[in-house]
Design goal:
- The complex is a heterodimer.
- Chain A is mainly beta.
- Chain A is built from no helices and 13 strands.
- In chain A, the strands form three sheets. In chain A, strands 2, 4, 5, 6, 9, 12 and 13 form a seven-stranded mixed β-sheet that branches.
- In chain A, strand 5 and strand 6 form a beta hairpin.
- Chain B is mainly beta.
- Chain B is 0% helix and 58% strand.
- Chain B has no helices and eleven strands.
- In chain B, the strands form two sheets. In chain B, strands 2, 4, 5, 9, 10 and 11 form a six-stranded mixed β-sheet that branches. Chain B has a five-stranded antiparallel β-sheet with strand order 1-3-8-7-6, with no helix packed on it.
- Chain B is globular and about 40 Å long.
- The chains are: A mainly beta, B mainly beta.
- The interface between A and B is medium-sized, with 27 and 26 residues.
Chain lengths: 115, 111
């Protein structure tokens, strides 16, 4: 199993450009998440999904959109990138056991710089 | 505001010593989790403790939870250089809620 993979690993954008980050998991997990990590801030939840075709906002959703058209994929879109979106982005997936969500499995991250 | 806050922000110890990190949170929780992040990598789950548990062990890791004080601690015994990483606590308010992470503790274990 590859686990959780993220594409691309690095990207540099100019202000105003758009891009899509792809997250894929091969563990058949229902739940998927997008986080951003900034120095001294820990991880902040951007959007998450509790199943195919569903998405929900997290703590910092502004400026981002997501889609979960297939169970194994969770896409994060930046329509008009801003320097404030310079960050490391992590995708994660999870599943419930006996009705309780257990650990999250993380991808390796995407380092995004917006100039 | 963030649910979990780790203390200290940074910790430096000698190999073989024990490392203790603390996490405080603000509201009631269903469970609390600890994760490790090596530099430049994704987070790896270490241990999960439910709100009705007080202590849990996994290898050299010992986690305690005090719901009356809304705090948890992670103890790493007999630390190794390979334990050098950032450690994050994360809380879930309900069994199906999203996970909220604290800012983390950076641990350096000096050989």
């Amino acid at each position: 199993n590859a686990g959780v993979t993220q594409t691309p690993k690095f990207r540099v954008l100019k202000t105003g450009q758009s891009m899509t980050l792809l997250c894929a998991q091969d563990m058949n997990h229902e739940y998927m998440y997008w986080y951003r990590q900034d120095p001294g801030m820990g991880l902040r939840l951007i959007h998450y999904s509790v199943g195919e075709g569903t998405t929900a906002k997290g703590e910092v959703p502004d400026g981002y959109n997501v889609s979960r058209l297939k169970k194994q994929n969770f896409l994060l879109g930046l329509e008009s990138a801003a320097p404030s979106q310079t960050s490391v982005y992590f995708c994660a997936s999870s599943y419930p056991i006996a009705g309780v969500l257990v650990e999250q499995y993380f991808g390796p991250g995407t380092r995004l710089t917006v100039t | 505001s963030q649910q979990g806050e780790e203390d200290p922000q940074a910790l430096s110890i000698q190999e073989g010593e024990n490392a203790t990190m603390n996490c405080s949170y603000k509201t009631s929780i269903n469970n609390l989790q600890w994760y490790r992040q090596n530099s430049g990598r994704g987070l790896v789950h270490l241990i999960l403790i439910r709100s009705n548990e007080r202590e849990k062990h996994s290898g050299r890791l010992r986690v305690t939870l005090d719901t009356s004080k809304k705090s948890s601690s992670l103890l790493i015994t007999a630390s190794r250089a390979a334990d050098t990483a950032s450690y994050f606590c994360a809380t879930m308010k309900t069994s199906y809620d999203k996970v909220i992470f604290g800012p983390g503790t950076s641990l350096s274990v000096i050989p």
